[in-house]
Hints:
Residues 332-439 form the Fibronectin type-III domain. The protein has 504 residues and is mainly β.
Amino acid sequence: MKSASKMLPHKCLIWRCLFVGLILGQVQADLDFNNDLENSQKFKSIPTTVKTYENDTVQLPCTLHTPFRYVRWHRDDVALVDSRHPEIPRLDRIMLWPNGSLQVANVQSSDTGDYYCEMNSDSGHVVQQHAIEVQVAPQVKIEPSDLSEQRIGATFEVVCDAQGVPQPVITWRLNGNVLPQSSSGNRQSLVLEIKSRNQAGLIECVASNGVGDTAVASVYLHVLFLPEVSMTQAVVYSKLGARAHLECIVEAAPSATVKWFHHGLPVALGAHSSSHESELQANRSLDHYVNAVRHTLVVKSVRNADMGQYECRASNGIGIRSGNVELTGRPMPCLFKINPGTQSSTSHVLVWQTESQLPIMEFKLKFRQIPSSNVTRLLKTNWTELTIPAQSTSGLIYITTYTLHGLQPASLYEASVLARNSFGWSDNSKIVRFATGGEVELPNYSTESELQEDFSEEDFHNEITQRSEVLSASMMFNSGSVNGRGFSALMYSLCLIKLLPLIN
Length: 504
Ligand SMILES: *[C@@H]1O[C@H](CO)[C@@H](O)[C@H](O)[C@H]1NC(C)=O
Ligand SMILES: *[C@@H]1O[C@H](CO)[C@@H](O)[C@H](O)[C@H]1NC(C)=O
Ligand SMILES: *[C@@H]1O[C@H](CO)[C@@H](O)[C@H](O)[C@H]1NC(C)=O
Ligand SMILES: *[C@@H]1O[C@H](CO)[C@@H](O)[C@H](O)[C@H]1NC(C)=O
Ligand SMILES: *[C@@H]1O[C@H](CO)[C@@H](O)[C@H](O)[C@H]1NC(C)=O
Ligand SMILES: *[C@@H]1O[C@H](CO)[C@@H](O)[C@H](O)[C@H]1NC(C)=O
């Protein structure tokens, strides 16, 4: 055993030695002695980077072609072992073999780094660099995690933090679909502008570095939105004493409360009217937090005062939305039926159908001529109205046949019909258009734009005039009848096809 007084100068020597070695190591590392021919030729061992995993045992070789006097290892700038001073090892995981190899047992990720072996022999002092890279499977953290609720219009930022060696690559997935941007770097954020409820779903951050399993962290995004109200029917046809069901379907997140209003006033619920709700099966697995509820207002025995406009008003924390439904005893709008019978050149047979809970008293048939190939475009025709008495029927359905006489041959007409019962007039039917000599059922006018070049500005003004005329007659038509700039052109072509056999 050495005495304390003897230890002191000895220890000083070690420190000085370490210090010199440290400076030396640093300088030599900078000079890249691994490529220094004279230096490396003396080594039998070759510079190695050992890729390893946590808890493994690693050996770094250090052998010369000639015997050595002593060997020292240091890591970056920390001395590890020295063959002359077996008492200095600080970590029991690290040991020096007699042949110069360094052994690191139970490797930790902190052991990653450069290791330098210095050997002293008869031919001088040489250094070799090795490295240990402890590979660590990726780990990933996401913020926020689990669940996040965002409103439409919000900007949602998700931050993903991935750790691992080598540096993991981060990829984002939205409902299982990989987003195009992916990059390395241990922190990455995904910014989503919440524009629609369809953006709801699973957001995943996937980190992989080729070591072990890929790591996934996720957050589930719930999009909160204004109630969406849809009415199963816009008009409910009923009669006094009958039971009426008014329905609206409300989808919302968070769930909405629904109140019914009649002519702007809350509906008094009780013996006369009651409201029910039933949850509709949510069939979208990702949307399970959205609830779709059918709300029904039941009027048990309809009175006159119960008729009119109803509002289904749904509200949640985001806002209020409404849908409207009318309860009425009026007849349903009439529907023209295609009449396959042969038509004469001055008359036309029209057939229409309607349904009414109360007896229909009369019909009002409106018709007018519309421009055709041999009628000037400036032609202005007013609607001609005819009152047609209703025939009694045993059921609720009324089918009426009426022949218009005294029409211009080979001309175009349009017609609309309304029905009246003791409750009032029905809405207008859709417009039917026909040519004398044959009825023409027209398709949609969605091709208007394609036909527009056939029309000059003048024609357009002409159309506007026609339109205001129609409005002054306080008629409302479906199927784009009055704004059909291209409609006439379409009519011409249809008409020509129809007329050619007539002319010949
Ligand atoms: C290493 O050992 C520790 C302690 O036994 C253990 O928790 C860890 O999972 C091990 N690492 C690997 C990669 O096996
Ligand atoms: C050094 O010695 C150890 C222990 O005997 C042995 O496992 C290792 O292979 C030797 N290394 C070289 C380069 O000979
Ligand atoms: C859910 O949707 C699938 C198809 O999209 C359908 O086959 C199934 O019947 C639906 N289930 C319910 C309860 O609506
Ligand atoms: C349209 O032309 C046909 C055949 O040329 C003719 O019989 C008919 O009277 C014309 N209509 C008008 C409104 O001039
Ligand atoms: C069409 O109706 C308007 C207003 O109702 C009237 O001023 C005009 O004279 C009518 N035109 C024809 C040709 O009857
Ligand atoms: C006609 O137009 C309506 C409304 O624009 C549309 O819903 C319908 O599908 C169209 N029908 C055809 C046959 O294009």
